[in-house]
Amino acid sequence: MTNPYKKYLDLFFEKLLYYRHISGRIDKVFRKEIEVYSSDKAIMHFASALVISDWSGPTDNGWELNFHTGIFAETTKENYETEIKNISSRQRCLLYAQSYESFERFLKDCLFDKLERDNEIKEYVISLLPKNQNSIISRKTMPGGDKLFNVLKKVGGKTFKKFSISNNLDVKFKELWTILSEVRHAITHNESTIELNKINKSDHHFAIFNYLFNSKKLSDNELLIDLDFKKFEKLIKRFSEFAFQVFKIISIEEELEWKK
Q1: Cα angle at 13 between 11 and 18, to 5 degrees?
Q2: What element of type H or E holds 32?
């Protein structure tokens, strides 16, 4: 029997490879920028100001009247390298957020495929939906977040438990899921600033975070997530491997061929 989950895995791999490829291009372009503007002979000064108009204010015979908001940004030669590295990190953080969205899509595709052929899983998913929601499950109504992880855990059965307890990285899947999702949330909703208590729930949680992400201390309870090219490359590799474990687990449970 052809493995129905393989196409979802391949699609996810294609996405992650593309994001890693973009990261590589960003790295080369920004390194060149730093090289050009860090030389002794280089002269540079970039400045920007925010100028707006008042929609409900007067005009100059129909032409808008603009005014300076007092908000401006400035980059000098002395801080250029630091700023470029910060920009590069922010771009990679956004690429990671997209990677996580692709991972959730991969999981939902696999698990929805499964529940269409398994009434027990379908009933379990329906039980996780809000009580006021129609009991007819669709791809769009598949739960996300920790509920999605619980569906994966149920579908993965004994194999999920076995691989989570014992694997070559000594990483527990629930803790890994928590770190990946908390980081994505911080990037998307808090400009890559994450509260320490979100990732330091246990020593294992914090070890996973430090293994996959760099960070800078902002305060006693806040870190700024930071990603350089090498760290992002490792992150993409490990993320791909996690997806492969998911594929392998649900394939084994359904007695499907999973080996390349």
Answers
A1: 100
A2: helix 6-37
Among the listed residues 211, 144, 216, 224, the one whose alpha carbon sits nearest the alpha carbon of residue 179? 211
Strands 193-195 and 45-53 turn out to be unpaired
pLDDT in tens, 241-254: 999 999 999 999 99
Cα 158 from Cα 249, distance rounded (Å) = 9
- Amino acid occupying residue 169: L
CA distance 181 to 187: 10
Task: Please name every residue paired with 68 in a beta bridge, in sequence order, or none if there are none.
Answer: 51
Q: How many CA atoms lie within 13 A of 157 on its CB side?
A: 12
- Alpha-carbon distance 98 to 177, whole Å? 16
Question: In this structure, what token pair is assigned to residue 210?
Answer: 């430090």
* Overall residue count recorded for the chain in this entry: 260
How far apart, in whole angstroms, are the C-alpha atoms of residue 152 and residue 164? Answer: 12
- Between CA 87 and CA 208 the distance in angstroms is 24
Asked whether the beta carbons of 177 and 149 are under 8 A apart, the reply is: yes
Residue 47 phi/psi, 5° resolution?
Answer: -140, 145
Whether 145 has a pLDDT exceeding 90, the answer reads yes
| pTM for this entry | 0.89
Contacts of 23 (CB under 8 A, 6+ apart): 91, 92, 95, 229, 232, 233, 236
157 pLDDT exceeds 80? yes
222: part of which helix (H) or strand (E)? strand 222-226
CA distance 216 to 220: 11
